[in-house]
Hints:
The chain is mainly beta. It is built from no helices and five strands. The chain has one domain (5-89): Aspartate Aminotransferase, domain 1, CATH 3.90.1150. A five-stranded antiparallel beta sheet has the order 1-2-3-4-5, with no helix packed on it. The chain is elongated. This is F-actin-capping protein subunit beta. GO terms for molecular function: actin filament binding. Its main location: cytoplasm.
Amino acid sequence: YEGGISSVYIWEDEDESFIACFLIKKDGQGKRGYMQIGSWDAIHVIQVGPEEEGAAHYCLNSTVMLSLTTDNKQSGTFNLSGSIRRQVTHSSLFISAEGAM
């Protein structure tokens, strides 16, 4: 992980559910290959609420953002940035691994 920062926030919603937010940030300068400067940010939010007959509803939203800048004779000069967002919902009697994300 080499010096990134992270935070976790958890709170209750008014409809008897709870929400957890996991934030991760990592910045780097000249540590990998030709990279001059770069950053990586991830935001994961999960909401868990009750359903009928003791089951629970899970909703997971994940966003990952990347940014990379390089200025090198061999690789040239470029800026590359992007993000991806995924959402998955699931209802069950127990929590299961959300490996499909």
